[in-house]
Amino acid sequence: MNATSTKQDIDHLNEFLRGERAAVETYTQCIEKFDDPQMKEELRVLRTSHQKRVTQIESRIRELSGTPDASSGAWGSFAKLVEGGAKVFGKSAAINVIEEGEDHGKNLYNDKLDSLTAGTRAFMIEQIMPEQRRTHDTLAALRRRV
């Protein structure tokens, strides 16, 4: 792997990492909106999945001798702003914000996949993307219940 492709992998992985951090932040805010213990637990499970992906992506970046971004970046700021508005509108709006983030993550992974090196692509396909699909599908089912 040459230095250019390694840097590109690290850049893309950091973009994914910022999105995963934003997801954790947004799930945390959303969980606070619900009183139903079952709904709170299901949202916690989804948040834990995103927290696990944060750890996995950080590890992959370090394997490539990169430095993981520490913040959620612009998407996290946007998610906080939208979530702040969702607090005024209620639970359904909060779930919709999370679902938009899940859509964004799924699309981002798919859009960037072909530009990754073989090793990082395999990491994404085997470890990250299956969980992203699972959280996306689970959240869609939860949204129908709200």
UniProtKB/TrEMBL annotation:
InterPro entries: DUF2383, Ferritin-like, Ferritin-like_SF
Pfam families according to UniProt: DUF2383
Start and end residues of each DUF2383 domain: 10-113
Gene3D superfamilies: 1.20.1260.10
Superkingdom of the source species: Bacteria
Name of the protein: DUF2383 domain-containing protein
Organism whose genome encodes this protein: Enhygromyxa salina
